[in-house]
Amino acid sequence: MNKQARQQAIMDMLSERDEILIATICRHFDVVPMTARRDLKELEQKGLVIRTHGGAVLKEKKIQDTETSLLKRSKQRVDEKRRIAQTALTFVHENERLFIASGSTINIFGLHLMHTMPLTIVTNAINIAYHLSTDDQLHLIVIGGELRKNSLTLTGPMALHDLQQFRLDAAFIGINAVDETGRLYCSSVVESDIVESLFETVPKIYVLADTTKMMQRHFVPIHSHKPYTLITTYEFTAEAQEPFEKKGIEIVQCL
């Protein structure tokens, strides 16, 4: 197991308990105490944990599988998310093959897609698949994988394998954070694997992000330099927009 995956697993374990001990990390991952301490130090530097004598505790409860549930997020900033979804719909064309990811804004986008035009939809979000299944114009494909209950997404090696079987025209994704340079962040390694695979294989990526996601960082950065289209309600200043433009990122503001 590499360092990033091990640190992700440490965060998973912390989400289920009050504290994790260095001895537990050593035993569970078969590493020496120096490696365990280094992992906890790096997680602390990222602002995710607070080190204690012999271990660490979570600094915040909004990490990975303890992130705010999809149901709760779907009731927040609804008007803002509808504006983003309506704008995103203008980038969809008849008979396209689209990937639709997960998230509360993406869920609203999926609802706006219904009964509009014939499309092929590939998704790893079971809630979106459920809603879209009633539209006879849509050819719906659900990729397999392990279920993440809070986001209702299917992830892991099976999901990645299934995703690579399709040639897609565009992908519409939600994200946990977008920093001041335009870099994207997910809440878990398994989610980031899906996003990075999309960046590698899909020609057009549309990122839907409400104001709360902007100029933030989260647990797992996306390692891709490919430009994308950002559809957001965030009000950019000319200065804030400059780093995005230098990377070729198109900003569509839903004001």
Automatic annotation (TrEMBL):
<dbReference type="InterPro" id="IPR036388">
    <property type="entry name" value="WH-like_DNA-bd_sf"/>
</dbReference>
<feature type="domain" description="HTH deoR-type">
    <location>
        <begin position="3"/>
        <end position="58"/>
    </location>
</feature>
<dbReference type="InterPro" id="IPR014036">
    <property type="entry name" value="DeoR-like_C"/>
</dbReference>
<keyword id="KW-0804">Transcription</keyword>
<keyword id="KW-0805">Transcription regulation</keyword>
<protein>
    <submittedName>
        <fullName>DeoR/GlpR family transcriptional regulator of sugar metabolism</fullName>
    </submittedName>
</protein>
<dbReference type="Pfam" id="PF08220">
    <property type="entry name" value="HTH_DeoR"/>
</dbReference>
<dbReference type="InterPro" id="IPR001034">
    <property type="entry name" value="DeoR_HTH"/>
</dbReference>
<dbReference type="GO" id="GO:0003700">
    <property type="term" value="F:DNA-binding transcription factor activity"/>
</dbReference>
<dbReference type="InterPro" id="IPR037171">
    <property type="entry name" value="NagB/RpiA_transferase-like"/>
</dbReference>
<dbReference type="Pfam" id="PF00455">
    <property type="entry name" value="DeoRC"/>
</dbReference>
<dbReference type="InterPro" id="IPR050313">
    <property type="entry name" value="Carb_Metab_HTH_regulators"/>
</dbReference>
<dbReference type="InterPro" id="IPR036390">
    <property type="entry name" value="WH_DNA-bd_sf"/>
</dbReference>
